[in-house]
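Ticket #4471: structure output looks truncated?

Reporter: J.K.
Steps to reproduce: submitted the chain below (355 residues) through the standard prediction queue, then opened the result file.
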Amino acid sequence: MSSQDGSGVPFSTAHEQQSFRLIELPPQLAASLKSSNPPTLYLKSAAANAQSTGGLAPNAVLCTHSQTFQIRQVQSSNSLYILQPSSSAPSTEYGAISVNGISAIAQCNAILEAVPSFISPNNYLRQILPLYGEPAAETNKAPTESKSKEELLKDAPFSQREFEDSLVELCAFEHDGQTYLPSPESQLKTWKAFMNIVDLESLDLTKPFSLPEESEQEAEYIPTLLTAMLEMLKSDEDTGDSHYSIDPQKTIPLIGAFILKASPQVPTSTSTASEGPSGLRLSDLIQQWCDLLPESWRDKAKVEALRIKVTYRDGDMVVLRDSIEEKEIAKGSAVEKGTEGNKGGKGKWHEKFRK
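Returned output as attached by the reporter:
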C-alpha cells in the first residue's frame, strides 16, 4: 500500500477568485437563527430618492420582524480567506495518488458588522409624510407620490413592528390611497365628532366599546383618522380588534394639546399675530378642554397635565413655548427658555449658583 510522506495539508489559491461579504451577527441574533423557529432576515434601505429618505442616508440595514440592525463595514489588518476542500491530480511526490487539500477561493479585507439600531422611525415619518389639510408649500415638504402604509414600509429602513408602532404613536392614517400625519385642527375636529357619538351612544370610554357601523356624525370626520386616534389613545391592556378602551392618562393631555395647538396665533414682541405662537386665555383653554372630556375626567384638565412646553403671558394667556422660540430664533433674536412672562420667577437657573 502506498503511503504519504508529507505531514501537511496541501494549500492552493484558486486562479479565479470569488466575491464574498462576511457579516458578523450579534450573539442573540445568531443564536435565534439556530433555534427551531428561526426569524426571517430582511436587507432594507431607504429609497435613493433624496425626497423620500427622511434625512437618512440610503444605507442598508438588517431587519427581523421586530428589530433593526445597522450594518457597518469594519476593515481588518489580518488576511482572511474563504476556503473550500480541493483535490489535486495524482503526483509522484505522494506515490501517484490524488491528494485532498484546501483551496482559497476568496480573500476578505473587511467584514460587515450588524449592531442594534436605536433610531426611531418617528423622525423619518415626520420628514416624508404630508400633513393632512395643508398644502406642501406650507409644510416645507416636497410633494410626494401617494403611498399606502404597506408601500411605505417597503422603502423604510426599519423593522415592520417598529415602523407600525411609530405609525400608531404619530396617529398616521390613510385617506384616498395616501398616508398622512394629522394636523392639530383635523385631530380636534375628529375628536369633537367622536364625543358627539359618545354622548349619543352613552359610551363608557374606559370599558371596551366598538364604533357604530353607521353614524350621523360620519360626514364630519375621516373614519380612518378616528380609528388611528383610538389606536393611539387606547389602554395598553387593550388588545381587542375593533374594540377600544381609552386610557385617560394618555387622552387628557393630548386633547388639551390639540386645543392649544389649533388655537389662534397671538403676537409677540418681535412678530405679528399671523407669525406668533398659538395661545389661549387660561379660562378659555380649560372650558374648551372640559367640554371635550367625559365628565368624570374633567377635574384632570389642568395646565400642569399638558405634555407640551407652555408659558404664560399677560398673567393668564397660555402660549406654546416651543413656537415662540422657533420663530424668534429664526428671526435672529433667540429667547432664553423660561424667561418670557414665566410665572414663579423661573429662568436663568445658572444665576442661582452665584450667590
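Triage note (M.O.): checked the attachment and the full C-alpha cell line is present. Residues 184-201 form the longest helix (18 residues).
Status: closed, working as intended.
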